[in-house]
Write a structure and sequence with these properties.
The structure is a single chain. This protein has 344 residues and is an alpha/beta fold. 29% of the residues lie in helices and 28% in strands. The protein is built from eight helices and 17 strands. It has a nine-stranded mixed β-sheet. It has a six-stranded parallel β-sheet with strand order 3-2-1-4-5-6, sandwiched between helices. Strands 14-15 form a two-stranded antiparallel sheet. Helix 4 packs antiparallel against helix 8 and helix 6 crosses helix 8. The chain is globular and about 65 Å long.
Length: 344
C-alpha cells in the first residue's frame, strides 16, 4: 500500500448495517470518509457522534456520483435497490462494496460484473462470515483432512425479527450459511431443494428449510427463521473422523471438535460386533481462536482490494454464483420443494 495514500469513500444507506460500516471505515487509517447518504435525513442522528468534521451528509446520491474525488462507494441499502445503485456507481467510475445479495436476478448480477470489468473497477459483496476467524478455521480443518470425508453439514440461523419488507427470510439470512458451507466444502452446490411457510401471513416466507446437494454426495441443510424466539447461530459438520460444532453466540467456546466418527470397515471383520463399520472415539477439543470483528476484517480487505489489488473471495463472480443458488432455491419453493439444478 502506498504510504500516505487514502481511499475516498462514500457510504449510502444508514439503516440496520450502515452505521457499523461507517464506524469501521471511519476508523480505518487508509480511508477518508467523504460522504454519508440516506434518503431519510433523520437517520444521520445514528452516526453524528462518530463522523469526522470533513464528512458531508446528503440525501442526494447524485452529489456522490458526480464527485470525482469519491473513488469508492459502499452500498448498504435494501436488497431490492442494489442493482440500480451498484449500476449507477460503477457507471460513474466508482469501486463498489455492496451488501449481500448483489441482486435478486442472475442476469442483473452478470451485468454488474461485466460493467465492473468494462470500467476497470473493483466489485465486492459483503459476505461477512468469510472474514470470521472461526469460519476460516473450519475451512482449514476441512482442507487439512482433520475431519476425514465430510458426510453432511447443518446450520440454524433463527431469531425473532428483524423482518425485511423487500425480501424473504431465505434471501436475507441463508446467504450467510451458504457462503460458510461453500467455503468449508470448497465447492458450490449442484442442486437445491427447499420448503417454506409464511406464519406472519405476508407475501414473503418467514421460515425455510433448505437442502444443498454438493459434489461427492455431501449434503448441507439450512434452517432460517425470523419468527423463532430462540436466537441460534450454529453450524455443524459431520465427518468421517470428527464432528465440529460452531456456535457464533458462544464467546467462550465458539468451536468444539469431537474426535468421534464412523466409516465402513476396510477389511473383513473378525466378529459380528465389528461387522461393516469402524467406530472411532477420541477427545473433545475446544481450540483457542483469537477473535476480531469480521466486519472490520472485511472493510480492510475491501480497502486493500482497491488500493493494492489484493485478491478476495467475495468478488462479483462469487456474488453471481450466490445469486444462482438463491434463485434455484426460489424455484424449488415455487415448485413445492422439487430439486432444482443451480446453473439452470
Amino acid at each position: 500500500m502506498v504510504a500516505g495514500r487514502k481511499l475516498n469513500i462514500a457510504v449510502i444507506g444508514i439503516g440496520h448495517w450502515g452505521p457499523n460500516l461507517c464506524r469501521n471505515f471511519i476508523n480505518h487509517s487508509d480511508v477518508e470518509m467523504k460522504y454519508v447518504c440516506d434518503i431519510d435525513e433523520h437517520k444521520f442522528d445514528k452516526i453524528q457522534n462518530i463522523l469526522p468534521e470533513r464528512c458531508l451528509l446528503t440525501t442526494d446520491i447524485s452529489k456522490i456520483l458526480l464527485d470525482r474525488d469519491v473513488e469508492a462507494v459502499v452500498i448498504a441499502t435494501p436488497a431490492s435497490t442494489h442493482y440500480a445503485l451498484v449500476k449507477q456507481a460503477l457507471s460513474s467510475g466508482k469501486h463498489v462494496l455492496s451488501e449481500k445479495p448483489l441482486t435478486l436476478h442472475v442476469e442483473e448480477s452478470e451485468e454488474l460484473c461485466e460493467l465492473a470489468a468494462a470500467h476497470n473497477k473493483k466489485l465486492m459483496v459483503g459476505f461477512t462470515f468469510l472474514f470470521n476467524k472461526c469460519v476460516k478455521y473450519l475451512g482449514e480443518l476441512s482442507r487439512a483432512g482433520t475431519l476425514g470425508r465430510i458426510y453432511y453439514l447443518t446450520s440454524a440461523r433463527t431469531h425473532m425479527g428483524l423482518v425485511r419488507e423487500d425480501v424473504d427470510a431465505v434471501w436475507d439470512l441463508a446467504p450467510h450459511d451458504i457462503s460458510i458451507m461453500n467455503f468449508i466444502v470448497g465447492a458450490n452446490p449442484i442442486e437445491v431443494s427447499a420448503a417454506a411457510s409464511t406464519p406472519l401471513g405476508f407475501k414473503h416466507c418467514d421460515v425455510a428449510f433448505i437442502t444443498l446437494y454438493y459434489p461427492d454426495g455431501i449434503i448441507g441443510q439450512i434452517h432460517v427463521s425470523w419468527v423463532d424466539s430462540n436466537k441460534e447461530r450454529t453450524v455443524r459438520i459431520i465427518g468421517q473422523k470428527a464432528r465440529v460444532e460452531f456456535d457464533d453466540l458462544n464467546d467462550l467456546e465458539p468451536i468444539r471438535i469431537f474426535q468421534k466418527g464412523i466409516s465402513p470397515a476396510e477389511s473383513v471383520a473378525p466378529n459380528f460386533g465389528n461387522f461393516r463399520f469402524l467406530l472411532r472415539d477420541g477427545d473433545i477439543i475446544s481450540p483457542a481462536i483469537k477473535q476480531s470483528e469480521p466486519l472490520k476484517e472485511m472493510v480492510d480487505a475491501f480497502v486493500k482490494y482497491v488500493l493494492d489489488g489484493t485478491s478476495i473471495i467475495p468478488d462479483g463472480r462469487y456474488a453471481v454464483d450466490m445469486t444462482k443458488t438463491l434463485v434455484a432455491i426460489q424455484k424449488s419453493l415455487n415448485s413445492r420443494g422439487a430439486r432444482q439444478l443451480v446453473n439452470n
